[in-house]
Every structure is written in structure tokens, then in C-alpha cells.
């Protein structure tokens, strides 16, 4: 069984450098470099590439091969998918829900994982695995900020990455919540256009600096 992380260790590695994690969906493999270029130009060189279509794995491999973006895999639903994502070069894994087998597989490989949770039962199950950083998904549908406030009182050593419904308009209120370690979402990359992505990334970095005093 995987040893629990010490309470002081967030277990995120380089992912801990970022307050905002752009979600990337790849419908056209030809857009991978434009998306990466935009993120790098905007000062937010991190991407959670979703495994939601036929191009996800190739997108991870292409983006990771550039060496200028911290690339993770999102929407990982099974151990097999996690293995493929790590083989493709993913440096972190995000899952929409809590699957203990996936959590143990990824951590045993020495890679950070941020599994999704929604309910207190799921938070406790993740905590029991030694995890202290979780994705709250789908945050917007379930009144994310109110849930975060309720969890902050109860799960005092847990921190969350709300996802689902986060945008430039509500990023500040999420990042300034004390139970939040980062926020993620597709709004930064959804245009597919390098210049628009750079502008959205710059705006997110600025909001991170204003609300938390850190870069992105
Ligand atoms: C996720 O997988 O994290 C969410 O689907 C992102 O949701 P968004 O598209 O509303 O940002």
C-alpha cells in the first residue's frame, strides 16, 4: 500500500508553482503548438490535457516534447489510461472523480495526482490515501464557493482546486478562498488561438498576483 504523504508535503511537485491550471481539449492535433505557444507567451506554461477524444494522448506527447510547458493528463478514468498518459510524458494526472486504484498507480509511479471529489465521503476517502490536494468538480454546478467554505471548517488540512464553471470573471473570488490551492478550467485555451490564449493567460496570472501575491 502507498505510504501516506506527510501533512506538510502537498505532493504536487512543480504543479505547486501554479495557481491556475488551464484545461486543454484537443479536437485538432494541429492546434497543439498554438495552444502551447499562447500559454508560454502568457506566462502560464502549464496544461492539463484532457483525454476526451482521439487526440489527447498525442497532444500530451507533442506538448511534453517541447520542454517549455508542464504537461499533465486530465479526465483520466482508469489505470490503463493513467499508464498511457505517463508513457506519453504526462508530469501530473487529474481525474474527475476519486478512483483509489488510479491514485495508487500514479503515486507509485512517483507522479503527482489531483483526483476529483465532490462529497465529504470522497474527501475523507482521498484523505485516507494521504492526499491533501483535491480537485472539486464540478464546482460551479454545486455552489463551489459555499462547498469550499463548509469544507474549510471541517477538513482543515485539505486544499482544493475548483473546476467546472471557473472563468476570468470569477477567478479572483475562487483564488482568494483560503481552502483553494489552485483553480482550473478551459476558459484560457478554448479559443485555440495563440494570441487570445496568451491574453487570457496573462489576465489569469495578473489575478493570481492580485489575490495571492504569487505568479499565476
Ligand atoms: C474540468 O474537466 O475540469 C471541467 O470540465 C472544466 O470545466 P470548464 O470547461 O467549465 O472550465
Could you explain how this protein is built, in words?
- Helix 1 (32-41) runs parallel beside helix 8, helix 3 (79-88) packs parallel to helix 4 (100-108) and helix 7 runs parallel beside helix 8 (194-212).
- The longest helix is centred in the last third of the chain and has 19 residues, at 194-212.
- This protein is an alpha/beta fold and 216 residues long.
- It has a four-stranded parallel β-sheet with strand order 3-2-1-8. The chain has a four-stranded parallel β-sheet with strand order 4-5-6-7.
- The protein has one domain: TIM Barrel, CATH 3.20.20.
- Residues 1-9 have low confidence and may be disordered.
- It is globular.
- It has eight helices and eight strands, in the order E-H-E-H-E-H-E-H-E-H-E-H-E-H-E-H.
- The chain starts with 19 loop residues before the first strand and ends with a helix.
- The site of 3-phosphoglyceric acid has 10 residues, from strand 8.
Amino acid at each position: 500500500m502507498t505510504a501516506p504523504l506527510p501533512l506538510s508535503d502537498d505532493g504536487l511537485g512543480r504543479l505547486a508553482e501554479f495557481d491556475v491550471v488551464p484545461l486543454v481539449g484537443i479536437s485538432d492535433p494541429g492546434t497543439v503548438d498554438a495552444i502551447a505557444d499562447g500559454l508560454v507567451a502568457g506566462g502560464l506554461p502549464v496544461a492539463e490535457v484532457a483525454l476526451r477524444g482521439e487526440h489527447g494522448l498525442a497532444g500530451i506527447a507533442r506538448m511534453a516534447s517541447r520542454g517549455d510547458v508542464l504537461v499533465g493528463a486530465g479526465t483520466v478514468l482508469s489505470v490503463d489510461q493513467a499508464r498511457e498518459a505517463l508513457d506519453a510524458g504526462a508530469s501530473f494526472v487529474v481525474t474527475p472523480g476519486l478512483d483509489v486504484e488510479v491514485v495508487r498507480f500514479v503515486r507509485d509511479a512517483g507522479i503527482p495526482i489531483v483526483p476529483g471529489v465532490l462529497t465529504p465521503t470522497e474527501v475523507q476517502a482521498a484523505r485516507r490515501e494521504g492526499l491533501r490536494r483535491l480537485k472539486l468538480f464540478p464546482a460551479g454546478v454545486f455552489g463551489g464557493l459555499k462547498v469550499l467554505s463548509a469544507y474549510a471548517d471541517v477538513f482543515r488540512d485539505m486544499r482544493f482546486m475548483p473546476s467546472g464553471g471557473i472563468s476570468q470573471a470569477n477567478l479572483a473570488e475562487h483564488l482568494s478562498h483560503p481552502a483553494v490551492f489552485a483553480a482550473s478550467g478551459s476558459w484560457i485555451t478554448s479559443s485555440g488561438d495563440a494570441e487570445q490564449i496568451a491574453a487570457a493567460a496573462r489576465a489569469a496570472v495578473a489575478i493570481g498576483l492580485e489575490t495571492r501575491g504569487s505568479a499565476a
